[in-house]
């Protein structure tokens, strides 16, 4: 098993409504001191206790990495979610305490890129806000393309425009679906200059479209970066998981994760904080067989090595896999 996360106690210093569905939460250290440093694209996992129910949701840090007196996260209320966003929207007030993990970055800016092209959809704008602070400080060449479905859903647009004007660096373009404004992803990918990297965060269809456009344009995979805090839907045939330490075999049903199958049968003690393939706490060693990897935690090289998998989202490639549990 992998990471055991250190927890920070924070206080909700301020709550602001950014759009009809998005609130910004400003978090300060409970002891009043500075918070740990982070880099653009970092996230924290917010741990919430609602009676007997516990939620752990990952959120990007959207403030300046130079301002450690507080963190800021943007939370979109998701009706069809695990419940954490609704809890934050409906039950958390200014002055309340929360527990969060130390910042972690799975969506860092590339040091090799000569130009950075940022593509955001909806709430996917949040990691780019901290990244743009970092890019402006570096004096790095960059541009932002931000798409959302209607004018009232353009969270943080005014701030982006104001900061871009003040810095005099980078460009920001906005695309409002209800106004018929469409982002030409194929054209963007074809026009990507040599040495430039493209980053995308937002709904799964946007991420898939950017990755497909980049592939069609012949852009090397290492120049394409993406992030989405949502577990992929479990799909695929049933398979068996052999737990090597106990010798037990667990049958994983179609549409079921390995983690849920183990918990359903109380077959082993496992730890998983996020259940979305981003925190690394459920990383488990593969002893035999191969995995289909759906997490965002392991690098592409680590996935190819087939030494471990995240049991919350990843599956067996065949009918059987043996794990170090």
TrEMBL record:
Record's cofactor remark: Binds 1 2Fe-2S cluster.
Cofactor(s), by name: FMN; [2Fe-2S] cluster
PROSITE patterns per UniProt: 2FE2S_FER_1 (PS00197), 2FE2S_FER_2 (PS51085), FAD_FR (PS51384)
Taxonomy, superkingdom: Bacteria
Gene3D superfamilies (alphabetical): 3.10.20.30, Nucleotide-binding domain of ferredoxin-NADP reductase (FNR) module, Translation factors
Keywords, ordered alphabetically: 2Fe-2S, Flavoprotein, FMN, Iron, Iron-sulfur, Metal-binding, NAD, NADP, Oxidoreductase
Pathway(s) of this molecule: Amine and polyamine metabolism; carnitine metabolism
Residue ranges occupied by any 2Fe-2S ferredoxin-type domain in the UniProt entry: 239-325
EC number: 1.14.13.239
Residues the entry annotates as binding [2Fe-2S] cluster: 274, 279, 282, 312
One Pfam assignment: Fer2
Catalysed conversion reaction: (R)-carnitine + NADH + O2 + H(+) = (3R)-3-hydroxy-4-oxobutanoate + trimethylamine + NAD(+) + H2O; (R)-carnitine + NADPH + O2 + H(+) = (3R)-3-hydroxy-4-oxobutanoate + trimethylamine + NADP(+) + H2O
Domain FAD-binding FR-type, residue spans: 5-110
Family: Belongs to the PDR/VanB family. CntB subfamily.
Self-association state and partner proteins as the record states: Composed of an oxygenase subunit and a reductase subunit.
HAMAP family for this protein: Carnitine_monoox_B
Known role: Converts carnitine to trimethylamine and malic semialdehyde.
Name used for this protein in its record: Carnitine monooxygenase reductase subunit
Species: Cupriavidus malaysiensis
Higher taxonomy: Bacteria, Pseudomonadati, Pseudomonadota, Betaproteobacteria, Burkholderiales
